[in-house]
Design brief:
- This is tRNA N6-adenosine threonylcarbamoyltransferase.
- Keywords: Acyltransferase, Cytoplasm, Iron, Metal-binding, Transferase, tRNA processing.
- Fe cation binds at residues 117, 121, 315.
- One of its GO terms (molecular function) is iron ion binding.
- The radius of gyration is 21 Å and the shape is globular.
- It has helices at residues 37-41, 48-70, 75-78, 91-108, 117-123, 172-182, 189-197, 222-237, 244-272, 288-301, 318-330; strands at residues 2-7, 12-20, 26-35, 81-87, 112-116, 140-145, 150-157, 160-166, 277-281, 305-306.
- The longest helix has 29 residues, at 244-272.
- The chain has two domains: 2-125 and 312-330, 2-Layer Sandwich (Nucleotidyltransferase, domain 5); 136-307, 2-Layer Sandwich (Nucleotidyltransferase, domain 5).
- With 349 residues, the protein is an alpha/beta fold.
- The chain binds adenosine-5'-triphosphate (ATP) and magnesium ion.
- Magnesium ion (MG) binds next to helix 5.
- Adenosine-5'-triphosphate is lined by residues 9-10, 88-89, 117, 146-149, 173-174, 176-177, 188-191, 194, 282-284, 286-287, 314-315.
Length: 349
């Protein structure tokens, strides 16, 4: 089966061609991503109307590149299914991808499946070269961490997801972005904080890990961001110059506080729900310390662990094509361009 995946939920215009062989082997034939991140950087976050305009401007070019790289000459003859993100995401941005996908499906008479972007992130683990699909055992506990989401999701089978905990306010990626802005580092903040933290001393300015001792599996990040804000304000009031070392120390302390609660709650939830594996996913799964620490914690618990290859941690359409495949396997009857509509607030449960 050959699937054309389309993603425009935020600030990446992405199209991929994916093959699934009869023996279930997955081959990513192309995975083109056109990022708008530099355009939004000056606003410190994604501007929906600007994102939509850029998607509309670029999507044809991204399709041509994806088809060319995959060696697809004729969509009608060579593609079996079209998959497009229909939520969650920015309405104006989602509409562009959906309208484009509908036109392609109508023109080439193809089934069209709407894909949950967050399921796409979870399935990005299946794209790893080393991933052994036959050895997958459920339930899998997923830690899904991105710019808009911080969730623990129990996956009991393909297409069976249960939300067991989530952030009560800011997402962890959003907290990285906000603290990076406070430190004057630029956008997106995650990779910048993570790099700076390598030079920092995390014990110099201890910051709190909100909700780390709460019995549930929820998270909260607005308090941590505020603690960083007050720390900076207090330092400025003492006329201390915020030199690179101080910034690195704050970055290290913030990163430690932000990650510790993720790791501890994931491990506790894995034990409580008798998880057979722990999977990490979402944009923040690019964080090298999180990858290292969660892997070590899962290994210590004796639970198999998976994280996406770095090529698939951020938004991409290969994961959307794959999630579209699983959604279509489960229910092919509704895969029609005539009825697909966006769901900007789509969520688990
Ligand atoms: N190395 C890193 N360390 C920490 N955070 C990171 C790192 N790399 C990226 N991020 C964060 O990941 C987020 C982007 O992830 P992603 O693209 O999946 O989010 P999104 O698609 O905007 O949101 P969602 O997937 O919830 O709709 C940003 O907040 C960014 O700062
Ligand atoms: Mg995302």
């Amino acid at each position: 089966m050959t699937i054309l995946g389309i993603e425009t939920s935020c600030d990446e215009t992405a199209i991929a061609v994916l093959d699934i062989a009869d023996d279930q082997t997955i081959t990513v034939r192309s995975n083109i991503i056109s990022s708008q991140v530099h355009l939004h950087a000056e606003f410190g976050g994604v501007v929906p109307s600007l994102a939509a305009r850029e998607h509309a401007k670029n999507i044809n070019r991204v399709l041509e590149a994806a088809l060319k790289e995959a060696g697809v000459l004729d969509i009608e003859k060579e593609v079996d299914l079209i998959a497009v993100t229909y939520g969650p995401g920015l309405g104006p941005a989602l509409i562009v991808g959906i309208a484009f996908a509908k036109s392609l499906a109508m023109l080439h008479d193809k089934p069209l499946v709407g894909v949950d972007h967050m399921r796409g992130h979870i399935y990005s683990n299946w794209l790893n070269k080393s991933f052994d699909r036959k050895s997958v055992k459920f339930p899998i506990l997923n830690l899904l961490v991105s710019g808009g989401h911080t969730e623990l999701i129990l996956m009991t089978d393909y297409e069976e997801f249960k939300l067991i905990g989530e952030t009560q306010d800011d997402a962890v990626g959003e907290a990285f972005d906000k603290v990076a802005r406070l430190l004057g580092l630029g956008y997106p903040g995650g990779p910048l904080i993570s790099k700076l933290a390598e030079q920092g001393n995390l014990e110099r300015f201890p910051l709190p890990s909100p909700m780390i001792n709460s019995k549930n599996f929820d998270f909260s990040y607005s308090g941590l961001k505020t603690a960083a804000l007050y720390l900076l304000r207090d330092l400025k009031a003492t006329n201390i110059e915020l030199d690179d070392q101080i910034k690195a120390d704050i970055a290290a302390s913030f990163q430690h506080a932000a990650l510790e609660v993720l790791i501890q709650k994931t491990i506790r939830a894995a034990q409580e729900y008798n998880a057979q594996a722990i999977f990490l996913s979402g944009g923040v799964s690019a964080n090298s310390l999180l990858r290292k620490k969660l892997h070590a914690a899962a290994t210590e618990l004796g639970i198999p662990y998976s994280q996406p290859d770095l090529a698939y941690t951020g938004d991409n359409a290969a994961m959307i094509a794959l999630a579209g495949y699983f959604a279509y396997q489960k229910n092919s009857a509704t895969a029609q361009w005539q009825t697909l509509d966006m769901k900007p607030n789509l969520g688990f449960n």
